[in-house]
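Collaboration report, partner site 2.

Our partner group contributed sequences for two proteins of shared interest, and the home lab folded both. The records are reproduced in the order in which they were received, starting with the first partner submission.
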Amino acid sequence: MDFIESYWTINRNRYLNPRQPVPRAPDSLDVWLNQLDEKRFTQDFRVTRHQFIELVVLIQDHIVFFNEFNVSQTTVWCQLMATLYRFGCDGNGASIWKQARHFRCAEGTIELFTDRCITALITLEADVVSWPDVNEREEISARIEELSGLRQCIGYVDGTLFPFSTKAEHDGSDYYSRKGCYGMVGLVVCNDHKRIRYLYTGWAGCCHDARLMANCELQLCKNKMFHGNQYLFFSLKGLRLRLRNERGGGRIVAWIRACVVLHNLLLYVPRVGDSEVDNPNRWIPVAKELPDLVDDGNFDNALIRNSDTEGKRKRLRVMKILLDHMTST
């Protein structure tokens, strides 16, 4: 009888817990976008305003941000802002509860925002994180030789540890590293311009760099990734994520990959006020117009507003005027 009563109780109620309103902090949207100076904006979201706009343009058309429900999703820029803020936090600052209060939404909403943005960023990975072809390897080798005297070197490789905030629930001891913490290890290859060209991760923290090297494409596909005498010169603070199962491990790897994509993108996205960009790369798509960033200054309304063409055009014009003013001052 207890099971039957439980079934009917669940069947009659949409929510098992009482639906109680949660007090929200004052709206900070206008402060973040319009009043916060460039230095503090970068401290909070790890990118400049201009870089933030470029990122929104790159991911805003991804299918993950669209649904078939009557109520549209939160605008892409709101979701990306919450995700970037979360990427830049560590320790107690990365608490999902604190961030939910900061962005005036539910804890699960922050998780949804993060997962959607990670999914969208990873779709850029093929263009942003790629192994250099034969001609580009020759160019990299020439630059490194001119800079350091190392001949035939096409990049720098090293192992790194991505620490966990807690012990993994399954096989936790395997994730205990020689550095005295739990985590996941990986190999990262970058070129002389600090652009990451290869990432290999997903291994438990107990694994040594040599084991990763023996199992990665750099070793298994030498003929494809190197030619002649080319070689590599050997030379995230803490993930507040729990490794409970296989899906959790995949999410951590996706988190790392998304951060690598962001790293490479932001190397070549100009900052507001820069007269030129160092080492520009043509593979980075640049926004032709500004995205839908400003609605009416109300964060709550931005969460539920449907996109409208005329309104978007007007907001684009307003934002363009604002950025032109910021650039000239």
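Second partner submission, folded after the first:
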Amino acid sequence: MSDETLSRRALGRATLERQLLLRRSDMALLDAVGHLVGMQAQMPMKPYVGLWSRLDRFQPEPLATLLEERRVVRIVVMRATIHLVTADDCLLLRPWCSPCSTPSSPVIPSSGWRSRAWSSARCSPSPPPCSPSDRATARRCVPP
């Protein structure tokens, strides 16, 4: 392991590269959505523009097909905003994020951060609990 520290510029460039923002990628559409682990999708057209700016030869029809087939979904998963994620990522992210919007969430009021006890319980080696509504969402999101 290296003791080298990245400069701010290098860290910024690495972040842009990770987000596919330095140059257009030849990555497949579904792979790109999975690689990004969520794209802002508050407005329905935003993922189309975001993917067009990231991918070589992007065409809107394949994304529409993935949405119709529920292989990608627009859903509230991070920061209480709508994101475009793969159906597989939805199944992983939704249980972690769904309690964020409930009135009984154990949140520290002054900061909005969850309590340490809640976070520790969520970071166990076993999968997070899945409510009946999460299961229903998963059934709608995952193709047969």
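Feedback sent to the partner group on the second submission included the following. Residues 8-141 form one domain. The radius of gyration is 18 Å.
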